[in-house]
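Q: Could you write out the predicted structure for this multi-component system? I'm mainly interested in how the pieces pack against one another.
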Amino acid sequence: MAEDVKALSAELARDPESLVFLRLGELLRRKGQFAAAQRVALHGLQRHPHLADAHDLYARILADHHDDEHAFDEWDMALRIAPTHIGALKGLAFLYFKIGDVAQAEAHLQAALEVAPDDASIHQAVAVVRGRGTAGAAAPFAGTVAPAAVPAPDAAPEERPVAAEPPLPLPAEPAAAVEAPVPVAGAAAPMDDERVFAGLEGAQEGLLLLDAAGLVLGGGLRDPEGRDVTDAVAAYLAGVSQEATRSAKLLGLGAWTGLSAEGRLGHVHLTPPATDRLLLVVRDRSMPMGRLAVVAQRAAQAARRWLERQG
Amino acid sequence: MTAAGFERALDLVTRVRGVRGAMLVASDDGLVVAEQLMEGIKGPAVAALAASLGNRLRRAMEAAGIGTSPFWHLQCEHGALLVVPAASGILVVAVAEPDVNVGLVRLELLRAGEVVG
């Protein structure tokens, strides 16, 4: 096994863009080397932010260590990228089951079955969910499963602690069931602001979502010297959306869809992802204005989905 | 700069196919310096808003550390507003159809900006 890790590590070192990080990360995860697995997964995500398997791998690592909220985000992102990703569907089912949302767990498993109708592990999981899906059975599951009893979603059968164990977590002993339900982004608790643009290129350094008053809803911005300029820029942009709207109306040009500006050291693009909301994308001058507009539209879609979830 | 000079600068922009009009606007107070607009466009109001929008954008870009903008472009469903700030503080503004050649308008706006100084 150690040789495998060495071989895969060497392969990744030779070609950092290689997808071998998926195998290496999974191998390290199975060996219980959390920190190393996480480093490999993040390395892969940096280079392949739009690869669903990379988000799935990172989610499994997070789920192994009970970081369910962020695992949820990663599986959610994987599904946005690949709506039929079985690993993500099973992973989300796992988390929903864990917090007692049996209906959502079953819905995700059914969606996985539509993609892989012959996958025995999914049938087994459906059976488990249906068996546990009784009123009042939900809350005690959350946060109560001992690490050894939590087979991570998509784990290979040989890695499960007990071969006969069902593919979803078992409820703990009643005496242990005292923790509060684990909050899951999109379900009970809001996503972290900085994760509005999770998975998008440069998500933490050049994407900013604001309300009409210039208050930051998500994202962040740094100047070329690395200083955090988020709040200052946001304050100056307050009111831009209304003025752009009024200008477009006065000119009879309909709704405004974007505002691009060249800068001496970088380019910016503003777009309204929703009423009274403003999205700013900043990139250096190496990115052409047209491509910047495409990046902005993708970020706007992510922002709209996030805003919808916030209600 | 003479009135003829302003007209020459505006001509550079309005001769581009798809441009509905052009204006020179004082960026500090938003007043129209010169204009060649198609009928129906409310020049003074657009000038005031363009100046205000440009000032907000300039301050935001300076705060972001990426410097002032030599060109900005408001895209709308049925057209666009394109702006180049000249060195003298005058904004050269074009109002254009949605299918205009933005690259060409940008070049002519920059040339007009040099004429205005």
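A: Regarding packing and overall arrangement: Helices of chain B lie at 3-14, 43-63, 102-116.
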